[in-house]
Amino acid sequence: MSEEKRRVMSVQDPVERNHVTVCGNPEAPRTLVFSHGFGTDQRAWSAIVEALAERFRIVLFDHVGQGRSVPEAFTQHRYLRLDRYAHDLVEICDRLKLRDVIAIGHSMGAMVCLLASLQRPDLVSRLVLLCASPRYRDDEGYRGGMSEDDFSKVYRAIYENYPDWARQYAPQMMGKAQPAHFTKTFAETLAAIPAENALTIACSVLQADYRAVLPEVKVPTLILQARADLAVPMEVAQYLHAHIAGSQLQVIEAEGHLPHVTAPAAVLGAMDGFLV
């Protein structure tokens, strides 16, 4: 097989393209699919996965453009919207012949799970949305947490000096009170994303507005929000709760945008009764 043909096949196969990992209990009746956020990869779920591995079959993957996904799979015109990432998730589930999964997503990955549940309702039976936002930009009657000026500064910083931006962004998202090794690890996975990828991914996340589709979510949904999250104000979690019918909202006593990394016990406790 030629190298070119091998690359084409790796892009087309979702298991290889998204560096899929299947672990946990293969005999378990329920499967959990974990979708990571911007700047991390599937390893961010390690503490959560370790605690749940005996009870569930677990599927992890890296979003295209991040982690150990196939580099050739990332093209700007395909990944300018989160819908494409959701399509990848659907393809992974189809490739593994999964149905009725519990989709657990963080930040960007949470909205990817939500969109996948709308694209293919037969695949997802429950949603867990951790520190999720349907829109980051402030709007009339809506506080997303970022102004037009904030957006301009982020895009300019990523474009002009991505490594420097990543070093500054990591401690802000992790929270000042967190141990240094958490921030160091996040800074490293963030900086590992090619700068040109990072700008496109940032645009797909920060320019998104999925408020209109929230009432279409029909599966049981658990919204988890850290008490102090610089990226996602509490008002956003409350907005999700108000617009997703029958959803549950639980506030986690944690600081920062990555509580599954810094406070996994709190996240596990909040999910426990929902993962049935």
Structural features, described:
This protein is α/β, with parallel strands linked by helices and 276 residues long. It has one domain (3-274): Alpha/Beta hydrolase fold, catalytic domain (Rossmann fold, 3-Layer(aba) Sandwich), CATH 3.40.50.1820. Helices cover 43% and strands 15% of the residues. It has helices spanning 3-12, 14-17, 46-52, 82-95, 108-119, 148-160, 162-174, 180-191, 195-206, 234-243, 259-262, 264-271; strands spanning 21-24, 31-35, 57-60, 101-106, 124-130, 221-228, 248-255. The protein has a 7-stranded mixed beta sheet, with helices on both faces. α4 (82-95) packs across α5, α6 runs antiparallel to α9 (195-206) and α7 (162-174) runs antiparallel to α8. It starts with a helix and ends in a 5-residue tail after the last helix. The model has no long low-confidence stretch (mean pLDDT 94).
Descriptive tags:
276 residues, alpha/beta, Rossmann fold, seven-stranded mixed β-sheet, 7 strands, globular
State the fourth-level CATH superfamily: Alpha/Beta hydrolase fold, catalytic domain
CATH architecture: 3-Layer(aba) Sandwich
Q: What global shape is seen? A: globular
Q: State the secondary-structure class.
A: alpha/beta
- Most strands sheet: 7 strands, mixed
Mean pLDDT across the residues is 94
What letter string, H or E per element, gives the SSE order? HHEEHEHEHEHHHHEHEHH
Share in β-strands: 15-25%
- Can you count the helices? 12
Radius of gyration: 18 Å
Q: According to CATH, what is the class? A: Alpha Beta
